[in-house]
Amino acid sequence: MNPGTLDIQVDGIGALSAPLQIVLILTLISFLPAILVTMTSFTRITIVFHFLRQALGTQEMPSNQILIGLALFLTMFIMAPVATEINAVAVEPAMAGTVTVSEALTLGAPPLRRFMLRQTRDADLALFVELGRVDTPRLRDDLPMRVVIPAYVISELKTGFQMGFFLFVPFLLIDLVVSTTLLSMGMLQLPPAMISLPFKVLLFVMIDGWNLLVGSIVRSFAA
Question: How many domains does the chain have?
């Protein structure tokens, strides 16, 4: 090597060369937002938070940044056991060179599949088995990911909307009571939302709403 020349040699992991692994890693990184939104608890959490803000009528408070940040940290908290298992069975063996990258992807899929299947309804799985013309396996764990992922997403959407509905009801009752009271008093020019907002915020604070809501969301994934 000539003086002043920088010689860098990058070794690959497993059987793949370093340049090919870099391309593969960059490709996976481009899919990270879709994986985060569709294959974790993030979807349900953000839907429930959206319904909460609409039910309270606080417009942009808490802000989108706060809610998304809280949703991300809750997702990390809920998905931590799954990530730990994937790291043990797939990432560490791949880094040690005992398995190839493709084998690591195969080994890392079952923990995530089991998590999604616990939250997925049989009717949603049956729908995509039928649409995909997939042979029905004996065990749910044998279903391919192309069936599990969309079934999981629509199950999460349904669950999130169900939780949002039950969250909306008590605040809707407050709006109805305030609107009826103002109407009976003849105060037609006064917006009911202006009067009901403090009562809804007071109710949410008095029952320790954030503690109850976050606890309910996290426990819903433990079922």
Answer: 1
